[in-house]
């Protein structure tokens, strides 16, 4: 049987985890020791009753339960809860938030947890927080502000209040509450403590503070209008971080020793303004409030002057003249598809903005002109044109006199300069100095200064337009901050001397996955939260140490107790070495590895991002590859899925693993302002733009244009600049006493009736509150006041018995722990409360149990026995200590007497030696002075000029040293002579000056007359020269027109010749196609001829066969004739001879005949002769059609002959068949 099963008591309430962020409250109904399982039933939190049919069996080996605090009880201080864990924290926050008297504030150590009430609560009185102890004050931002004020006044240490939380959690409203209290704090001091003589001065201070406080509060509408916007999570989200310092001047009344702090100045620092929202607001979100407030202001005259309504280049129809239609006219506002905000009244906010600008003394006219110019600048459209440089961008024809002209007019810029900056890239090359050659030493080549212009394509032009808009908005925002700071009278010269309270309103941890993508902005925000989390961990441990120091728990009687905190002044380590188990030591997630991964000086992600951005052709692909190569073995760099490694990287933050998308990292990190854009903005006639960039020295400007080292190396990187700002902020915060306010958003829908526990728990984890609770649990988290213990046991033991113990309750609690046999290392006694270690909660249950484990009489008996024993031990200890003190006192008296005698004798000797030395020193001093004067007089003896120089040097000094005054006495006669000489020289000089002036006047008059004559002559010559130049210009223009016409004519004839060549090529191609068709026909004719020749051969073969058959028929007839007549033999021989010749003809062996010239000739049959004749005819026939016609006729003749032969054969065959 596991020992854990016995720690769950039947009938108690426990929390069971039902999901990553969900807990279910239930009751332990039964225990099965055999199977180590319990019966668990859900409980209705509203009534405390068990939910029917909700019983379930839980295996204790696989399930762990957390004990629950009693129902229907809440605690303003989280550390006062009996059980401190995630479920208990969320339950306590929920009970306080959902109550009828809605209590959104709770505390934990020096951390205030503020759950956004989502509605305006009744205003809390400030006086109770000022006049009573803070221990009796409920949690509230006033509590944090008052604590900071008191610490600033008493400890004289600068204070800081860090407010963080996700968007919509109420950070801005909380900071307003803090500032409202601090601006009125000194006026809330008790009047009876003031001296009547200082009432008038105090009233004067109050009036000045009230005016300064009003100006400080009036800066908030300005910040909200220009720095806040509507997002998916919040209708009034701050898109920047701000740190406000409230500077106080201490005033002391010497009679009453009353110290007061008067508010005398304030300053505002801003961090990471989201300027990309100006040009590309996210889908479903709005741009900054100022644009919508201006268009919905209802001031027709102002909108007409700013050329916003009506739009001069994009007029609306009569049915569309409303605020939404006006807003949709501007591209920067309608891109996101969201133009309205149901939770914000833009018209009333615009009135508040005007009043705030007037209070802070800021010129609203120029400010609104710039805002209007940005809206018109976003409407500039581009088109592509084909030029010698390729496809380049140009302003659309419809916009040449429209949006860009109005935008330039509103921002005080020249339209041509603005168009040139958008469409042309200026490439400047500075002139270099003369370089000496190494070998000869003679001057080398010297490069002259030059400027080149390159046209931009469509994408580059759009990017330049948006970049100019972002730069202008950022500079305007910075100018507003500087003017607000000037109105707040911050004393920068005494910033290290005067105390202050800082209020930091910083963005909370952000993770937009999986709905949206995390980009560079989220990485910077999470880096800031990592830095503040490190500070938070340090301060939480320090606060616990301060509590232990205040309660004096390092008393000698508890020296044997080991617990994981050292002395207050000793450095705290993350894992101190003690004789405890490792799981009992204080350990928290140290995020130094994560901070090193992101912002290490040389090998951090920010440094790599800046390095890749400076390479030639930087791309996000190169950057992500460099990340995966350098940080793949880092413990905080998590490798994503292989298919996502091309565009994704993951970082393990203190709040969890976050996925970042690498898209646009290089572009967003680039913060280099082009000199072309800078010069353009400086040329504005509006002071708010022309004074935006500070003046730089010539060397710095030249170095910046050349890319030299004089320029700031981090000026072009947003990440490195933000890292530097955060490190400076952390250094300042570490030097102050930090107070934390964690703002919690109850639900994403901003519904007053919904408290999403899962979302709240996730925010508590991300803010580090849960981790802080775990740190407190490992220390001495469970604590109870002595007064509560005394009240419980007074009802049990009676008042008479309790009178035997002091009223403090500490002695009674110590006696009770001894009687109940608590282990000495399980608790510690402080001055006002008892602390228990983690896991010793059962001791507290035993201590606070109304029905103790023993009878009241037995308990009284043991308590009295403890008192008697304690008194006896105290008496014995006092006697022993008294004896030892007496001995030590005697020894000390002897030592003191000996020391007194030695000191008295040494004093006598020292006095004698001192008197002797003083006398010698006086004599030496007088002698040195006398000899020095003699040496000076002898050195100047006979040298009058040197005396005069010395006298002049003495007279030029404002005050002569005492040891040099004798020189004036010595040089007195010389001084008087010099004075008389000076008067004479002055008279001579005056006379000579008068004569010189008269002569000079005459010369001037003559010169003026000559100059007038020369001017007339030059004017006449200039007129003639101008006329000549005009004629030249007209001639040049005429010649240019003629050249253009000639070029046009040449171009026309060139194009005409080109067209003529193309036509000839097409005709040539057509003729080629016709020749190919004729050749194909000829080929077909040849094929037909070949077929006819084959047919002729076949016919000849048939003829030969028919001739053979004819010969056989003739032979048969001859045989019959021979048998019937005597001439048969001769006939037979004739027939045989004929048959032989015919057979020879059939086999190609024709009989030869000899010609007259002696050559033998062969006999050809008639068919062969016909064929030869036909070939001869074809040889001389040139016409193809006639040739074919002849061959057809020949074939027809051959056919006729064959038919005749066949008929002859048929005629002969019947004759041969006659008997």
TrEMBL record:
Spans annotated as Disordered: 1141-1161
UniProt entry keywords in alphabetical sequence: Actin-binding, ATP-binding, Coiled coil, Motor protein, Myosin, Nucleotide-binding
Classification via Gene3D superfamilies: 1.10.10.820, 1.20.5.4820, 1.20.58.530, Kinesin motor domain, Myosin VI head, motor domain, U50 subdomain
A GO biological-process term: actin filament organization
InterPro entries, per the entry: IQ_motif_EF-hand-BS, Kinesin_motor_dom_sf, Myosin_head_motor_dom-like, P-loop_NTPase
Name assigned to this protein: Myosin motor domain-containing protein
Keyword Coiled coil: yes
One Pfam family in the UniProt entry: Myosin_head
GO cellular component: a single term: membrane
Coiled coil: 1061-1116
Region (Actin-binding): 726-748
PROSITE patterns: IQ, MYOSIN_MOTOR
């Amino acid at each position: 049987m596991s020992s854990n099963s016995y720690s769950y008591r039947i009938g108690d309430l426990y929390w069971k985890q039902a999901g990553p962020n969900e807990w279910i409250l239930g009751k332990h109904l039964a225990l099965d020791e055999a199977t180590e399982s319990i019966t668990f039933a859900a409980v209705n939190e509203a009534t405390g009753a068990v939910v029917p049919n909700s019983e379930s069996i839980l295996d204790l080996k696989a399930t762990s339960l957390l004990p629950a605090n009693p129902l229907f009880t809440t605690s303003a201080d989280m550390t006062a809860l009996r059980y401190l864990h995630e479920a208990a924290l969320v339950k306590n926050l929920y009970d306080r938030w959902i109550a009828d008297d809605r209590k959104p504030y709770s505390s934990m150590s020096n951390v205030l947890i503020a759950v956004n009430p989502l509605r305006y609560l009744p205003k809390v009185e400030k006086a109770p927080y000022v006049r009573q102890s803070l221990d009796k004050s409920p949690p509230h931002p006033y509590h944090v502000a008052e604590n900071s004020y008191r610490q600033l006044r008493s400890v004289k240490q600068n204070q800081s209040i860090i407010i963080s939380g996700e968007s919509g959690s109420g950070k801005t409203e909380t900071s307003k509450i803090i500032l409202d209290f601090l601006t009125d704090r000194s006026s809330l001091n008790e009047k009876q403590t003031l001296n009547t003589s200082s009432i008038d001065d105090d009233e004067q201070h109050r009036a000045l503070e009230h005016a300064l406080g009003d100006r400080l509060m009036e800066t908030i509408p300005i910040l909200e209008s220009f720095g806040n916007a509507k997002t998916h999570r919040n209708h009034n989200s701050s898109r920047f971080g701000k740190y406000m310092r409230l500077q106080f001047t201490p005033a002391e009344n010497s009679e009453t020793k009353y110290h007061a702090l008067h508010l005398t100045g304030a300053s505002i620092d801003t961090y990471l303004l989201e300027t990309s929202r100006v040009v590309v607001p996210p889908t479903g979100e709005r741009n900054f409030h100022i644009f919508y407030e201006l268009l919905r202001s209802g001031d027709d005259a102002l909108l007409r002057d700013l050329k916003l309504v009506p739009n001069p280049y994009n007029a609306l129809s009569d049915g569309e003249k409303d605020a939404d239609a006006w807003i949709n006219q501007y591209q920067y506002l309608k891109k996101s598809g969201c133009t309205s905000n149901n939770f914000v009244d833009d018209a009333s906010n615009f009135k508040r903005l005007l009043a705030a600008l007037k209070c802070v003394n800021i010129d609203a006219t120029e400010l609104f002109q710039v805002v209007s110019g940005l809206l018109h600048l976003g409407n500039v459209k581009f088109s592509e044109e084909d030029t010698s440089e390729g496809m380049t961008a140009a302003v659309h024809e419809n916009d040449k006199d429209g949006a860009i002209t109005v935008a330039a007019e509103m921002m005080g810029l020249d339209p041509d300069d603005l168009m040139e900056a958008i469409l042309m890239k200026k490439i400047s090359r500075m002139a270099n100095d003369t370089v000496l050659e190494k070998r000869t030493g003679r001057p080398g080549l010297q490069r002259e200064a030059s400027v080149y212009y390159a046209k931009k394509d469509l994408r580059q032009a759009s990017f330049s337009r948006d970049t100019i808009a972002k730069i202008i908005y950022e500079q305007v925002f910075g100018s507003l901050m500087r003017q607000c700071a000037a109105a707040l009278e911050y004393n920068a010269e005494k910033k290290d001397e005067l105390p202050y309270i800082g209020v930091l309103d910083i963005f909370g941890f952000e993770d937009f996955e999986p709905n949206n993508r995390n980009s560079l902005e989220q990485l910077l925000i999470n880096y800031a939260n990592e830095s503040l989390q490190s500070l938070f961990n340090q301060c939480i441990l320090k606060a616990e140490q301060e509590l232990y120091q205040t309660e004096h728990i390092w008393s000698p009687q508890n020296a044997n107790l080991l617990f994981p905190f050292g002395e207050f002044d000793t450095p705290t380590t993350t894992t101190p070495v003690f004789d405890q188990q490792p799981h009992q030591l204080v350990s928290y997630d140290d995020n130094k590895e994560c901070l090193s991964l992101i912002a290490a000086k040389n090998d951090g992600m920010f440094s790599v991002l800046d390095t890749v951005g400076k390479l030639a052709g930087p791309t996000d692909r190169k950057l992500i590859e460099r990340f995966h190569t350098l940080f793949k073995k880092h413990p905080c760099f998590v490798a994503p899925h292989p298919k996502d490694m091309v565009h994704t990287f993951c970082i393990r933050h203190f709040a969890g693993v976050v996925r970042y998308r690498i898209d646009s990292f290089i572009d967003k990190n680039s913060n280099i302002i082009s000199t072309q854009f800078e010069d353009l903005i400086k040329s504005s006639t509006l002071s708010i733009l022309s004074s935006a960039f500070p003046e730089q020295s010539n060397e710095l400007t030249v170095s910046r244009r050349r890319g030299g080292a004089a320029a700031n190396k981090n000026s072009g990187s947003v990440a490195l600049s933000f890292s530097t700002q955060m490190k400076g902020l952390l250094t300042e915060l570490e030097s102050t006493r930090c107070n934390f306010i964690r703002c919690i958003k109850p639900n994403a829908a901003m519904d007053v009736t919904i408290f999403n526990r899962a979302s709240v728990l996730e925010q508590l984890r991300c803010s580090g509150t849960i981790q802080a609770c775990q740190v407190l649990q490992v220390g001495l988290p469970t604590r109870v006041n002595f007064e509560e213990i005394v009240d419980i046991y007074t009802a049990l033991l009676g008042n008479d018995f309790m009178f035997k113990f002091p009223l403090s309750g500490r002695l009674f609690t110590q006696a009770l722990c001894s009687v109940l046999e608590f282990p000495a290392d399980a608790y510690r006694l402080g001055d006002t409360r008892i602390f228990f270690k983690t896991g010793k909660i059962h001791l507290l249950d035993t201590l606070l149990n109304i029905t103790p484990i023993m009878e009241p009489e037995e308990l009284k008996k043991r308590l009295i026995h403890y008192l008697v024993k304690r008194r006896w031990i105290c008496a014995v200890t006092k006697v022993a200590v008294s004896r030892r003190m007496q001995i030590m006192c005697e020894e000390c008296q002897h030592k003191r007497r000996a020391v007194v005698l030695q000191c008295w004798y040494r004093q006598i000797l020292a006095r004698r030696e001192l008197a002797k030395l003083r006398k010698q020193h006086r004599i030496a001093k007088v002698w040195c002075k006398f000899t020095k004067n003699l040496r000076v007089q002898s050195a100047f003896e006979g040298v009058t000029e040197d005396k005069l120089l010395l006298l002049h040097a003495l007279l030029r000094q404002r005050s002569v040293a005492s040891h040099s005054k004798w020189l004036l006495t010595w040089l007195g006669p010389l001084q008087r002579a010099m004075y008389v000489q000076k008067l004479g020289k002055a008279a001579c000089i005056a006379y000579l000056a008068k004569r010189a002036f008269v002569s000079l006047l005459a010369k001037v008059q003559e010169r003026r007359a000559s100059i007038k004559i020369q001017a007339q002559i030059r004017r006449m010559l200039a007129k003639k020269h101008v006329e000549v130049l005009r004629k030249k210009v007209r001639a040049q223009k005429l010649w240019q027109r003629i050249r253009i016409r000639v070029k046009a004519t040449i171009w026309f004839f060139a194009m005409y010749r080109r067209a003529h060549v193309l036509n000839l090529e097409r005709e040539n191609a057509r003729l080629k196609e016709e020749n190919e068709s004729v050749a194909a026909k000829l080929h077909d004719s040849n094929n037909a001829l070949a077929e006819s020749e084959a047919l002729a051969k076949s016919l000849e073969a048939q003829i030969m066969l028919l001739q053979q058959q004819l010969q056989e028929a003739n032979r048969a007839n001859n045989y019959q004739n021979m048998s019937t007549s005597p001439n048969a033999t001769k006939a037979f021989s004739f027939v045989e001879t004929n048959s032989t010749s015919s057979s020879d003809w059939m086999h190609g062996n024709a009989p030869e005949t000899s010609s007259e010239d002696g050559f033998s000739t062969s006999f050809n049959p008639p068919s062969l002769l016909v064929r030869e004749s036909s070939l001869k005819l074809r040889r001389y026939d040139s016409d193809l059609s006639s040739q074919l016609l002849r061959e057809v006729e020949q074939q027809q003749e051959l056919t006729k002959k064959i038919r005749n032969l066949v008929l002859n054969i048929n005629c002969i065959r019947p004759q041969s068949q006659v008997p």
